Amino acid sequence: MKQKINGKTKVLGLIGNPVEHTISPLIHNTLSEKLCKDYVYVPFKVNRGNLSKAIEGAKALNVTGLNVTVPYKEEVITELIEVSLFAKQIGAVNTLKYTDDGYVGYNTDAEGLHKSLLNNDIVINNNDIVIIGAGGAAKAVGILCGSENANSITIVNRTKEKAQNLANNIKKYYNVKTNVLGIDEIDRISSFDIAFQTTPIGMSPNTEHNPIIEEEFYKKFHTAVDLIYNPYKTKFLLKAQENGIKILNGFEMLYYQGVRAYEIWNDIEIKQDILEDVKNQIIDSINLDI
Ligand code: NAP
To answer: Which atom belonging to ligand 1 lies closest to the Cα atom of 133?
Structure first.
């Protein structure tokens, strides 16, 4: 790292467990270098039972901003003085900003996904959406689809009850038609517009797996988004591409949720040309097999 740490350097970081495989330090330290900001971003592994102490310690140490990852995105809410509207609706926080009174929480996953969709000319408004999976990531996708006025949202999940909970949560905030199916009922779906694959199925090293193997499914929609970015094209995306469907992976979502957090910490809006440069630098350094 070219950046030099000195007495004025401010600290940013990530709390979670595990944190060893994160690329967030690369994203944030590259942004700091590019923008000549005197910050250093470090991962902090927080053991179960230590979340409260970690937040209190970070506050005492004037840590300017934190990202929060698994398994603390929900639990951390009780440690905060305030949460943003998206974070409240999603029920999870992934970004904390220091204030003298305590940390304020945000969820930049939905905003990161939105920016990545806009960059790739994918529009949710008025479209019929299928979300595969109903975990943490699906919650952000669902709220984004609600807020962007999707025509309908169908949630398909192994545990149908969790899909129903997600649908109920979306409807609590947005007036959108929702349907819920078990993953074994996927053949009941008629034609729609955009599929969001939000399960970890197909993620490296299990790249041969695909949550949807039914051939017919791939004849029913025009755009496939997989939140996984390693591999760059999952089996799900490859299958979609074979069927002439437009595809997008989760790399830009990950990158832009980080960018959005950085903008919140610094109260700035980073110019698109800088964002493109940093994005390409990151793609080069993690050696993604594009
Ligand atoms: P999660 O909360 O654990 O949810 C996992 C979901 O996948 C659940 O709906 C689960 O179904 C389903 N699932 C898991 N294994 C399954 C299997 N073998 N068969 C059928 N369904 C299965 O995980 P998450 O936090 O949402 O993350 C999911 C994926 O999104 C991960 O690959 C993660 O890396 C990715 N992600 C990417 C970004 C990004 O910025 N690109 C951001 C967040 C997450 P049940 O409800 O039945 O258990």
So the answer is: 9
Overall number of domains in the chain: 2
pLDDT of residue 286: 84
Against a cut of 0.70, is the pTM above it? yes
What is the distance between the alpha carbons of residues 134 and 155, in angstroms, rounded to a whole number? 7
Q: Does 1 fall in a domain?
A: no
Residue 39 lies in a domain: yes
Q: Ligand 1 centre from 136 Cα, in Å?
A: 7
Q: Is the pLDDT of residue 1 over 60?
A: no
**For ligand 1, atom 11, which residue shows the shortest CA distance?**
158
Q: Atom of ligand 1 at shortest distance to CA of 137?
A: 26
Residue 287 pLDDT: 72
Long-range contacts of the stretch 49-52 (C-beta < 8 A, 24+): 51/15, 51/75, 51/76, 51/79, 52/79
**Could you list the active site residues?**
73
Same domain, 236 and 265: no
Is residue 200 included in any domain, yes or no? yes
Q: Is residue 206 part of a domain?
A: yes
Q: What is the pLDDT of residues 266-285, one digit of tens each?
A: 999 999 999 999 999 999 88
Euclidean distance between CA atoms 87 and 108, whole angstroms:
8
